[in-house]
Design brief:
Structural class: alpha/beta
Number of domains: 1
Distance between the termini: 11 Å
CATH topology: Rossmann fold
Strand content: 25-35%
Order of helices and strands: EHEHEEHEEEE
Mean pLDDT: 92
CATH architecture: 3-Layer(aba) Sandwich
Strand order of the largest sheet: 3-2-4-5-6
Shape: globular
Bound molecules: guanosine-5'-monophosphate
Radius of gyration: 15 Å
Length: 172
């Protein structure tokens, strides 16, 4: 089966949204040295662009959660594959996500982090599919609300393909 990705959000629009989010984070976290935790693998390009725009002292780490595998539907069974240990204690944490779909992954990660006693936890996501939420999710810094389509590009894959696309696209 051949799949053609269609552009949903252009690279220009992505960079404008990142400028806006980064400005808000810069304002809220001046002098706080926040710890940004990227959720691999989909957030790696977003994280790289975001931190360069935030441009205040901060630290970066990554975690990895069990993912969809090669399907396009969440199994709802989530595991933290890259554990964060002591790194979050007393820190002002910002989770950096590529997509919030059902919200189950993020809800799980927030409860995992809260057990490790951070000073605060906020959520930054490049995209959100509100029509798909199964649990309430509060997104503090959001790039785009997207329709219920399968998104790829700008770091986001389908079965490891399409991460390199510079725009956010959808496949059918
Ligand atoms: P949730 O737990 O919110 O349902 O799913 C979050 C994760 O599912 C995302 O971080 C991403 O890995 C994957 N996901 C959800 N929707 C999409 C999508 O449209 N495209 C891709 N490539 N992954 C998605």
């Amino acid at each position: 089966m051949s799949v053609i990705p269609h552009i949903l959000i252009t690279r220009q629009e992505i960079h404008e949204a990142i400028d806006k989010m980064a400005g808000e984070i810069r304002r809220d976290y001046a002098d706080k040295n926040p710890l940004l935790i990227g959720v691999l693998k989909g957030s790696f390009i977003f994280m790289a662009d975001l931190v360069r725009q935030i441009a205040i002292p901060l630290e970066v780490t990554f975690t990895r959660l069990s993912s969809y595998g090669s399907g396009t539907e969440s199994s709802g069974k989530i595991k933290v594959l890259a554990r964060l240990g002591e790194t979050v204690k007393d820190r002002d944490v910002i989770i950096v996500e590529d997509i919030i779909d059902t919200g189950l992954t993020t809800a799980y990660l927030i409860s995992y982090l809260n057990k490790r006693k951070p000073a605060s936890v906020r959520l930054c996501s490049l995209t959100d599919k509100p029509s798909r939420h199964k649990v309430p999710v509060k997104i503090d810094y959001l790039g785009f609300t997207v329709p219920d389509k399968f998104i790829v590009g700008y770091g986001i894959d389908w079965d490891e393909k399409y991460r390199y696309l510079p725009d956010i696209c959808y496949v059918e």
